C-alpha cells in the first residue's frame, strides 16, 4: 500500500496542482518532497489542511488510499442491506456466516445486524444471539455515538422487544436523536443523518403498531414531518411518504392513505423486478392490519 504522502502526490498530480498550491503554509518545499516520497510523516492537522487544499474529503482520501475500495466491514454491511432490500436471504446468510466468526467488532456488528434482519423477516421476536448481545452492550456502554454507532443503533429496537425490555425504547430513541443532532447542520446534512432518523422512525412506527402502542404510533408523524425533506435522499423521502400513508390508513383518512400508497407503488413499478421489496411487503401487511384496526376501533 502507498504511504499517505505518495497518495497525496498521486492526487495532486491527477488534479494538476503544483506543490506550492498544496503545501504553502503547511510545510517547506524540501519537507514536502520527502513527504511525497514516503520518507516523512505529518500530523493529522496538517493532513486535513492538505486535503482542503486538494478539495478532497478525508473519506474519499481513505477510499483512494485503500486502492479505491471501502473498508471490508463497510462493504459487507452495504452488501447485506442491498440483499435485505431485495429479499435475497441466501446472500444474507453467506455474509452472516462470513462475519460471525471474525474477532473484529466491526465484523461482529455486521453479523448481528444480519441475524436480526433475517429473523425479523419471519417473526417479530427472536432469540438474542451472543453477537447481538455484544452489540447491545457495546452501544449502551458508549456515552456518545459516532456515525458508525448511529448507523448500527437502529437494531437496538427489535433487540429490546425480543428481550422484553420495551421500556428502554424511549431511551434508545432519545439517545439516537440527541446523537444525530450533533451531525445535523443548520443548513446542511453532510452525513445524511436525516435518512438515518427516517429509518429509525419507520422501525419505531412498526414496532409501536405491532405492540398496539397506538398513542406512541400517532406521535411518530410529528417527528417525521419535522425532518427537512430537502435533507433526505430519495430513499428517505419514500420512507417519509410510506410512514405518512400508513398513518393515514390507521388514524387519518383511509382514502388519502390508499391514494398515497398507489403513488408509492407506481414509483416501485418503474423498475422490474422491484428494487425495494421491503416497501411493497410493508404496504401489503399494513393495508390488511390497518383495516382490522379501523374495524375494531370503529373509525370508519
UniProtKB/TrEMBL annotation:
Keywords: DNA-binding. The keyword DNA-binding applies. It comes from the Bacteria. Residues 27-61 form the HTH cro/C1-type domain. InterPro entries: Cro/C1-type_HTH, HTH-type_regulator_Rgg, Lambda_DNA-bd_dom_sf, TPR-like_helical_dom_sf. Gene3D superfamilies: Tetratricopeptide repeat domain (1.25.40.10). GO terms for molecular function: DNA binding. SUPFAM superfamilies: lambda repressor-like DNA-binding domains. This is DNA-binding protein.
